[in-house]
Automatic annotation (TrEMBL):
This is ABC transporter substrate-binding protein YesO. Signal peptide: none annotated. It comes from the Bacteria.
Amino acid sequence: MHRKRKYWIAIILLCLTVGMLAGCNSKKGNSGGKSDGDQVELRMVWWGSQDRHDRTLKVIDQYMEENPNVTISPEFTGWDGYWEKMATQAAGGNLPDIVQMDYKYLSEYVGKGLLADLNPFVENGALDLSDVEDTYINGGKLDDNLYAVNIGANAHAILLDKAMFEKANVPILEPGYTWEDLKDVAQQLSDNLGDGVYGVQPHAGVMGFKHYLREHGKWLYNDEGTGLGYEDDQLLIDFLQITVDMLESGAAAPPDVFKAAGGNVEQLPIINEKTAIVTDFHSNQLIAVEAAAGRPLDLMIQPMLEGGELGHYIKPGQFLSVSAHSKEQEEAAKFISYFTNSIEANEILDAERGVPIATKVREHLKEKASEAGKKMFEYVELAGEYSREIDPPDPRGSTEIETLFENEVADPIYYGEITPEKAAENFRKKASDILAKNK
């Protein structure tokens, strides 16, 4: 009897052990740590137009339908205020699990330890980048760690309304045109389109200046991120003078016509035919702008510097990153993988954020693209012919410098409150102080 008792006790213990192991294994499951019964709650934040919000919400709903154990709470806004909101959440240790990231902010967020390295999730298959070429991946890497996944390649562009050119009897600018050509055409458009309509919405902002610097073989920052990358302030003076000349001649719209739009592309004055050209634009914005305008618009490359270098580059339009604060990093990586590779999801997204990075998705959408989508795909291909390699991500402090440029260079130039010479002098002094903190 004693032996039988021991035998049954051993059997019971064995069954309990097997049951516990089976339970542990079931929790691992195919989802890398969560079974279908384990509820996962994620937060996702992005900026953009209403069109982007609608598309992204549909994809989130579709993902949750396919993954009933996952709930994704969306948070979205326009560009204005987005980074202030992110900074507040970061300071409180409360960044959403999935964050839409921009190339110029990547170094800063990585430097502050706010983003997770995604390489482990690529290695274990949660984030599938097997159909993505390195050229689309490398922009999200720092020191060989992958902190961001490109969700749409784009290129700096000029937006124009060909119908307004035709109405003004002004020829369309062709690739290879110069800054002087742009000024001349803007003047003709303003002269021929009547009162209250202008040739160009000017842009004396940092993005345009970066393009201008690249044409001179320079960049805004030095390699170490400890100072400005150009020594001659005449470069900034000359760049700002282009805008001053167009404002003074009436070729460019005054700030009260275009400043009200803020960062909202759906409120650009070209929508209401107040300008025929927008000089600072990104190719991935075309779909949203055409939807808002209700008529065809087109893209062309930026002006070229006679005898200068190529200024364009193919840029990650936006990234998706995973917060270092997230307790569900692998699950967040899985959603990014879906966002990248799902044909069904990308039919909804329709390349609104830029040209998709997965080869099969890109080829599928190009065949089925709307007219606006086709123009975007074709423009990125064209810009590639006028591009050279992308510069490194902006260093820490770049967000402060961009705000400085907007508030103390671009805006005062628009309103005629400062000369290009004084603006260039002030910018160098204050920007140098900011970047010196990186030494």
